[in-house]
């Protein structure tokens, strides 16, 4: 039996705000909205049926009605018009990066301090100057006439921003809603689920700590269990990962929660076959895509997750406070809005989009971030970044002598890699990298290992990598001398 989710809500007429078409004044242009393709949709794989007093909704999944299953099986992911970033999730090992922009030139377009070796883009991202300027212009436009902006133009502006993001993600605009970050999106889903005592949420031991806490909280409140499958290291075979996770599935498994790219270990997980298995078994799937958009190509419709939460402020280089939640069309009425306001009973977008007075400038700046990636040939940038992070991985492994977390393949890592270090105190190592060497790179303890996570963005150079390797070599050398006393 599937978990019952949020109380059902009858569809109502959309809020009829007056509309203006005069655009931004004083030379500030509207975000450019793409013309998304018509998205073909098969019959939904789950029915939302009313039953019982009050019309409470329950889920009835029909494994034989898997929307897009044949498409995903026999064809590569669709490319959206004007979106050259979409493509296959698994890529060959690319070494030709001659068409990538010069990192020094890209560095000038970011606001990062020039005296810092910044190898931590994966933490909070970094916003280019042109995108940040757009962000500030939106804020200024709001303050020039708040009522006009939020009352008359809000819905049109958000629609345009949503269409641009949806085209980038390979999704329909009505299946995507803006949220402040991926953690918020996963919380919205997790807290909408009505798990029963004894139900299980299945995940891995590589998940983001904050979301481990989210699910543990929800499970404690409902009497459910949070089951963490241990993945075999080093990761070498996608099949081994799939079997390690699926081997922990029981008759009580109701939800499968997976990271697309893990946070502590920076690994790309083979989630597609697990999502297919879960669909067949009638298990709800929730994906933490915090590190995926902008780092790996996405086609969310083809991927087939029930819920997918991601960030725009990390690898898409949008301003802080821009994330999204993708929900399959037939499940949208089941997501409880975190703030119930004027959009209540007006459908998924209206319910989630209007949450009282707030600054939406970060959302409206996402199209500018997407334009920035396109204008600077970001597929080539990603290839160059992977080549450089591979150099960093090899050099660090040569210094440490420790085995890696995965095979050396772009199937397992893209622009971010975690490398084990033979150091006893992760926090001390991180502090020393910053205070003594001016290097911003996270060092953390995970599963009894000390890991340094290296993020390579288009503005990073070989000199940045060499500085980190030199600093790590010194820390290891000092630790060896200390241990020999």
TrEMBL record:
This is Aminotransferase class V-fold PLP-dependent enzyme. Residues 1-96 are annotated as: Disordered. It comes from Candidatus Segetimicrobium genomatis. It comes from the Bacteria. Transmembrane segments: none annotated. Keywords: Aminotransferase, Pyridoxal phosphate, Transferase. The lineage of its organism: Bacteria, Bacillati, Candidatus Sysuimicrobiota, Candidatus Sysuimicrobiia, Candidatus Sysuimicrobiales. Residues 18-44, 60-86 have a biased composition (Basic and acidic residues). InterPro entries: Aminotrans_V_dom, PyrdxlP-dep_Trfase, PyrdxlP-dep_Trfase_major, PyrdxlP-dep_Trfase_small. Residues 118-468 form the Aminotransferase class V domain.
